[in-house]
Design a protein that fits this description.
11 strands; 6-stranded parallel sheet; alpha/beta
Length: about 260
C-alpha cells in the first residue's frame, strides 16, 4: 500500500458522500498479519485495503458496519488476541482503532419518479445528502443526477427495509395503493426521521382510516407529513411542490443538528 493510498480513497468516498470507518492498527505484539500503522476503510457496501484478512478482518468489518448502521461518531479501540479463539494462527496481539467518518448528512429515500419526483430529486441532489430513488419503471431514471442511487425495484418495499435508521422517506408513486403500502411499512418501522406523503388533506383522511384499520396508532399517524411540504410555499407545479418539500426537509435536518 502506498502511504497516501488511503487518503485518496477517503477523498473519493467524500466526493460520493459515502460514510465510512477508517481502521488503523495501533499496536502489535508477537506474530501479527499486519504491522502498526496499517489502514483499512470500511463502507456500507465496500471495503478498501486490508488489515490482514481472516477472522480479525471479518470481525472488524462487522464492527465497523454496526457503527455505520448506528451512525456512531465516537472513536473506538478494540484489542484482538490472534489465537485459536479468534480462528487465527498468528498467536500475537493487535489493537485496532475504529474512526467513523460520518458527515451529518440526511439519508433520503424517494419513492416515485414521475414529474414531481424528477423535480424533487434534481433539487435534493444539490444538497449535502444521500439520495436513493426508487421506482418500478427503470426508463424514468435516464436523467438521474450524479451521485443519486437509483433502484429499479419490482417490490419497492425492499427499499423500505434496506434504508438505515433515521432515514427521510418521501412517498409519491404513481399508485395510491402503492403509496398506502409504503406508508404503512415505514410507519411500522418507526425509526425514521421524516416521512412525507404527497397528496391532499382528503387523501390523508382516507389513508388514516385505512391505516388505523391495520393497527397504526394515532401517535404514529401524527408523525406523517401529508400534505407534504412547507404550507407557506404554495403552488401546484412540480418545481413548486419540490421546493416546498425540500424546504421542509431542510428545516427538519437543521433542527436535528
Amino acid at each position: 500500500m502506498n502511504d497516501d493510498e488511503w487518503i485518496a480513497i477517503l477523498m473519493q468516498l467524500r466526493e460520493r458522500r459515502e460514510p465510512c470507518v477508517l481502521l488503523t492498527v495501533l499496536a502489535d505484539k508477537g506474530s501479527v498479519p499486519r504491522n502498526c500503522g496499517t489502514k483499512m476503510i470500511v463502507g456500507r457496501e465496500q471495503t478498501f485495503l486490508t488489515i490482514g484478512g481472516g477472522h480479525l478482518e471479518y470481525q472488524s468489518i462487522a464492527m465497523a458496519r454496526a457503527m455505520l448502521e448506528k451512525q456512531s461518531t465516537m472513536l473506538h479501540t478494540e484489542h484482538f488476541n490472534l489465537g485459536a479463539r479468534l480462528g487465527q494462527c498468528c498467536g500475537g496481539m493487535t489493537t485496532v482503532l475504529f474512526e467513523p467518518l460520518i458527515q451529518a448528512q440526511p439519508q433520503i429515500t424517494v419513492f416515485g419518479a414521475g414529474h414531481v419526483g424528477q423535480a424533487l430529486v434534481a433539487l435534493l441532489s444539490t444538497l449535502p445528502c444521500h439520495i436513493t430513488w426508487v421506482d418500478e419503471r427503470a426508463d424514468l431514471f435516464s436523467d438521474a443526477p450524479q451521485g443519486v442511487k437509483t433502484v429499479h425495484a419490482e417490490d419497492p418495499l425492499d427499499a423500505v427495509h434496506a434504508a438505515p435508521a433515521q432515514s427521510y422517506f418521501i412517498v409519491m408513486t404513481h399508485s395510491h395503493p402503492r403509496d398506502l403500502e409504503l406508508t404503512e411499512a415505514i410507519l411500522k418501522r418507526g425509526d425514521y426521521r421524516y416521512l412525507g406523503l404527497i397528496g391532499s388533506q382528503t387523501k390523508r383522511q382516507r389513508f388514516e382510516y385505512r391505516l388505523a384499520g391495520k393497527g397504526i396508532t394515532v401517535e404514529q399517524l401524527s408523525t406523517l407529513r401529508c400534505p407534504v411540504g412547507l404550507p407557506d410555499v404554495k403552488g401546484k407545479l412540480p418545481a413548486e411542490i419540490a421546493v416546498a418539500i425540500t424546504a421542509e426537509i431542510i428545516a427538519v435536518y437543521q433542527a436535528a443538528s
